[in-house]
Amino acid sequence: MIKTKASQRKEIRENLRGGVGALDFLHLFEKDELSGKANMFAEVTLLPGQSIGEHPHGDEGEIYIIKSGVATVTDCGKTYEMNAGDVMWTTGGETHSIENKSNSPLVIYAIILP
User: What values do phi and psi take at 34, rounded to 5?
Assistant: First the structure.
């Protein structure tokens, strides 16, 4: 399957998981297009000061891939800085958050796996 950028759905999510700001989501593939292999595959842009609040994962896991910018993340209560090319995996029973404390946009790929 090939999807042009023009066919990818855009969405704005506000204060996601108790975070700050209105985040831009570009859904690269929709859940029903992923044959049950993933629940979300999106490019997410966080402008300076925006965040996704700390939240647990139950039966799902989530991958963050830093495309560009600098992220401040928590992974099970510990804080780290991530840069372009860095990846993060959060699985069932673990918690994480992400914040853009820099002066430039932060762009990540977020993939939620069942």
Answer: -105, 15
- Report how far apart, in Å, the C-alpha atoms of 19 and of each of 96, 99, 114 are: 12, 8, 23
The pair of structure tokens assigned to 89 is 């995996």
| Confidence (pLDDT) at 4 | 97
Q: Can you give the pLDDT at residue 20?
A: 98
How is the chain split into domains, by residue range?
Answer: 5-113
Distance CA 74, CA 54 (A): 7
Class of the 5-113 domain? mainly beta
pLDDT bucket at 29, cuts 50 / 70 / 90: very high
CB 47 within 8 A of CB 14: no
Question: Which tokens in the block code for residue 43?
Answer: 């490019």
